[in-house]
Amino acid sequence: MKTTALALALSLAFVSAVAAPAQPFRWENATVYFMLTDRFANGDPANDLAYGRQRNAAPARGYEGGDFKGITAKIKAGYFTELGVDALWITPPSEQIHGATDEGTGRSYGFHGYWPRDFTAIDANLGSAADLHELVDTAHAHGLRVLLDVVMNHTGPVTEQDPVWPAGWVRTSPVCDFKDVPGTVRCTLVKNLPDIRTESDGPVEVPPFLAAKWRAEGRYEREMQSLDAFFARTGLARAPRNYLIKWHADWVRTFGFDGFRADTVKHVEPEVWLALKQEASRAYEDWKRANPGKAPGDLPFYMTAEVYNYGIRDGLAFAIGAQKINYRAVGFDSMINFTLKTDAQADYETLFSSYARELHTPGRGLWVLNYLSSHDDGAPFDALRRKPYESANKLLLAPGAAQIYYGDETARVLQVAGAQGDAHLRSFMNWDALARDPEVQAVRAHWSKLGRFRQAHPAIGAGSHQRLAQAPYTFARKLGADQVVVALDTVPGQAVQLPVAGVFAEGQLLRDHYSGEQLRVQDGQVRLSRPGRAVLLAAD
What we know:
Shape: globular
Oligomer: single chain
CATH class of the largest domain: Alpha Beta
Structural class: alpha/beta
Distance between the termini: 30 Å
Strand order of the largest sheet: 1-2-7-10-11-14-15-16
Number of domains: 2
Number of strands: 24
Strand content: 15-25%
Helix content: 25-40%
Largest sheet: 8 strands, parallel, barrel
CATH superfamily of the largest domain: Glycosidases
């Protein structure tokens, strides 16, 4: 497709002109933007390497400079607003192991955030506490919620620089066989990833290396007093899981995170997640009281679960071996849906109608967070980005909430020369391509138009679905008074007539929020003279 500079400028101008959301925010329709902090934007090159880390990693397995300041700058520039994003999901900001591992994929550092060393400290590679405060406060000021990625079931790997935690805290064997709940929970995910004994009620002290670190940093007494106060208030045992519950809730109470994305959920006892939700919810209300007017709305604390292989058709009962677990009952508001990447191979109507049916069947009652690509899914829908427009249509218009993985909207290719495994998924954000390549800019404009329309109309993710026409494929979504009609695969510039009867009244004035054209319903139809790649109709 050829894109002229004038057409692109007009397209991007229209994106910024789309009206702000008129409907209340709903997590069921949320658009969540997920980024690896280290791979998104480098706002401060001075913090690119900390703790003696070096640039000696295998391809895409070392630190590359992304930080809190980089994300904050993009918020201020309106990047997420233009995409219609409702919430940011950042990878765990806690201090990671200092050393590197080599488990068959080459030298690897903890740039991704899932190898924690100190759950109470910010990793210096990402910035300072002041930087993180500014990120969350700036997001809130721009109407964005922020989800914190939390790790409950393991520490980071053991290296020469990073000792194993005491035996009362972790197990180092066996490796999980995933046959049943014990074989999924009381085991290590992989070799050399010590597993927190979340089932244990045995009291443990702060690990000696951690206590020594706190003393060196001048905060040992403060941390211990805080722990004493927590255990006195709650009456909980000084067991490993309860330290982690306290430490994770502290991030909420300090910075004002609006929710958790919980990592490796099925590898922790369900009741632990419920306890975490309760304590984090208390912390969120404490933060809101201490920071009046800062929260983007008054919704309760939110949690979404990463239960590997959970699919939308599992509903409320996910099976681990012979046992079925209802994660809604233990504090989760939604589940990450692992099946959209394969379901998206179907045609639009098969995909959309089946998802609407699953989400609106009485008694199922669990909403999903859909994705097409992510940081650890080696089989994304379109790794080489040959179908960026179809990807936008199927992710942003599918019933349920949507998770954009950084670079979905800019056709960032999920392939890195010389890389192995999940490193292919984790290249640095392709800002240069977005700045210089008209094709990438056109893709981004398409994602933005769909994203802003979705944000303004909760019916898209949370409403009922009805097909209106097969060619061009046209459908309606309805949620109370919020009603829209969408047509896909229209030919840009070629006039088209679309049915809207039963959704919009005769003579009603509509606007196509893709092309900007104003229309009036006549004989139950509207005629567009110059549509774009899609038609997004709502009452004007």
